[in-house]
Amino acid sequence: MVCSEHTSGNGFVRKKGRVGKTVRWACPAFARNEDLNMPKNKTHSGTAKRFKVTGKGKLRRERAGHRHILEKKSSKLKRRLEGTADVSANDTKKVNKLLGR
């Protein structure tokens, strides 16, 4: 990325070190976060697989206990565990952060 404050064009200020070697100093624009698109937040891939966002922005999740060992569970319980449920209000903030929202 080219820094607009310096004429060198490489985004770094060049200064002499103690031993006479050239030292690269980070551009002041980087320290102030001006004109930067970094750092970008990455979506937590495990969370993205487990939660879906509805059209209105609500979070939905699958119900636990409906994957295996289903023979011993009653039909009534298995029917209750079908489908999706809303994410609790206590967990919404954390899940949104993991999803990068």
Automatic annotation (TrEMBL):
Keyword Oxidoreductase: no
GO cellular component terms listed in the entry, alphabetical order: cytosolic large ribosomal subunit
GO biological process: translation
Keywords from the named record: Ribonucleoprotein, Ribosomal protein
InterPro entries from the UniProt entry: Ribosomal_bL35, Ribosomal_bL35-like, Ribosomal_bL35_sf
Alphabetical list of Gene3D superfamilies matching this protein: 4.10.410.60
Lineage top rank: taxon: Bacteria
GO MF entries: structural constituent of ribosome
Pfam name, any one: Ribosomal_L35p
Feature: compositional bias, Basic residues: 41-63
Start and end residues of each stretch annotated as Disordered: 37-63, 80-101
Family: Belongs to the bacterial ribosomal protein bL35 family.
Name of the protein in question: Large ribosomal subunit protein bL35
